Amino acid sequence: MQQKGLMYSIGTSVVLAIIAVVVAVVISNGQTTSKLNNADRSMTLWNIQPGLGTIMIEYGARMNNAWWAVDADNWDMAKYQVKEMTEIQEVGEVTRPSHADALKKFEKNDIDPMMQAVDAKDKDAFVAAYDKAITGCNQCHGDTKGKDGSSYRFVKIIRPTGNYPFSNVDWAGQ
Length: 174
Ligand code: HEC
What we know:
The chain contains six helices and no strands. The protein is mostly helical. The protein folds into two domains: 2-37; 49-143, Four Helix Bundle (Hemerythrin (Met), subunit A), CATH 1.20.120. α4 (75-95) runs antiparallel to α5 (100-119) and α5 (100-119) packs antiparallel against α6 (123-143). The chain starts with a helix and ends in a 31-residue tail after the last helix. The protein binds heme C (HEC).
């Protein structure tokens, strides 16, 4: 009888220990998931993700490419470039959440109309949407303040001039 009691209490301890381990694993998995899903620049892995400076270089390049693609009547290329703009900006929304609202607003007000014009293969509508988007780019540069409190108004976007970008790409496509 006494031995049965001892076995019972060992059994209970083992069960409790297993439950404790399971709970600890679940909590720690939850914390890891949360760390992976929420930008925290005190962590090295987050800190080396592309910030707006890096993302904007691609944004600017694709905005330029979209212009030249439409100029060459390569609507598939234009669609691709505009779509990639939204994809790279989504990276910015994750890595720099404080800019997410402004980026989403820009996508809705300025990128979507460019895409609609591309889908309609309407050059005039595209140029109008493009000019409006340039105003939107510069508006955000003026509104966004860096750490020292000054804005990025010195980054002034204009319509592309000069030659086609990437001379090894045939902008007319196939
Ligand atoms: C959400 C606001 C916002 C919008 C919208 C925006 N930008 Fe920017 N842009 C920034 C900020 C902030 C910087 C400075 C980034 C930094 O260094 O941290 C910047 C910097 C840049 C740079 C300089 C990059 C470099 O480091 O050389 C270019 C080019 C640029 N933007 C292009 C554009 C273009 C083109 C558009 C429109 C299609 C646009 N941006 C729309 C906020 C914005």
